[in-house]
Amino acid sequence: MKFLLRMMWLLHWLPLPVLGRIGKGIGSLLFMVMAARRNIALTNLRLTMPALDESQRRDIVRQHFQAYSRSVLERAILWWAPPARLRKLIQVETSVGMPPGRIPVEAMTEKPTILLCPHFVCLDVGGAAVAMEASASSMYVAQKNKVFDEVLRAGRARFKPVKLFTRQDGIKPILRALKDKLPYFMLPDMDFGDKDAEFVPFFGIPAATLTATARIAAATGGQVMPVVATFLPDYQGYRVKFYPVWENYPGPDMVAATRRMNEFIEERVKEAPAEYFWTHKRFKTRPEGEPSFYSNKR
Questions:
Q1: pTM greater than the 0.85 cutoff
Q2: Residues 160, 83: contact at Cβ < 8 Å?
């Protein structure tokens, strides 16, 4: 692992178009050899995008493997490139009422703020963009390899102090961070089982979805500000877009609020379908009595 990390450190010196093309090439290879993950992604697209034909879905999955591989290699830039280079590569888009072209630090620190960050392959870019300007907090999955874990944590916290929580920490540290006006990155669009979740439609398919976004907003009186990071065309860099704070959220119905969240994510997926994290078994947990969508997949 140390050798691989040294190689990755060397990669951060490459121009982004060169590094991006290397990542794209690796992704094309992985699409061919990683049959199990390819089948998971194709299954997800058959469920969520039935109007497409199989050739179109395969094209999206191939592009997804390319985008994901790019994002992994390009983390070298996020972890080691100087801030001046990152600022040139990251294009910030904000909504009306926010400072144009700048991270809306004041808006996200004036009250408890949940930064809703769906699982697009460039989500770490959004984290880096915020971390260069303000401290934040997020859920964190500890890595099995201690060396890689240390590098990952250091990379995410190299600009401003960042609080990283694990699922084992529970919700109390998150509530304390929000109370201290520390923005919290929320990534709720994965299948973590049926605990603290409801079966809410995602592209019309019942999906076990955490209601934590709505519940935490209700408990803290906090606001939800979505942020989505995607690639700019032609290897120019990245776009980090901050959306308007959701009004009247969550309201009294936590399930309805969670459905509103999924609807928002659906719209963003339609805008950049190849960059959403399709290789995750998003519909793994099924309502009682329903068969698995993935059980017969390699």
A1: yes
A2: no
On whether the CB atoms of residues 262 and 209 are closer than 8 A, the answer is yes
Q: Which domain holds residue 267?
A: 2-275
Query: Would residue 298 count as lying in a domain?
Result: no
287 assigned to some structural domain: no
Strand-pairing partners, residue 162, are: 136
- Give 10-residue mean pLDDT values along the chain (298 residues): 88 97 98 97 98 98 98 96 96 83 91 96 96 92 83 86 84 93 94 94 97 96 97 97 96 97 98 98 95 74
Give residues with Cβ within 8 angstroms of 24, minimum separation 6. 66, 69, 70
Overall domain count for the chain: 1
* 205 C-beta neighbours (distance < 10 Å), count: 14
Amino acid at 231: F
Query: Is 25 a domain residue?
Result: yes
User: Which H or E element spans position 6?
Assistant: helix 2-11
Residue 297 lies in a domain: no
Structure tokens at 83: 């801030």
Question: Dihedral of CA 9/12/18/21: which sign?
Answer: positive
